[in-house]
Amino acid sequence: ESSWPERNPNAINCRYTLINRETSKFCGCLQQILNKEESGRTIAEKTNDAHILFKEMDVKKKRPFTLMHCYIEFAKYPKW
């Protein structure tokens, strides 16, 4: 038996929509950083810069990107 609460289809769709929106926004931040083509910088440094940019884009709350595990999974699929 699962310890997770049961979710109805609408709740699952709502959660996926949030995950997709935030992950897409982070992907855009990372792409902006990668497009700069700065030599000598590692992907880890560029990813860190994308996290900073993501946080700066949230003008009101300055929330960090907390769905990196989702981005890593989504990035495996080219159609995403």
Automatic annotation (TrEMBL):
Tree of life domain:
Eukaryota
The record's section on PANTHER family has: F21J9.4-RELATED (PTHR45125), OS02G0603500 PROTEIN (PTHR45125:SF28)
Protein known as: No apical meristem-associated C-terminal domain-containing protein
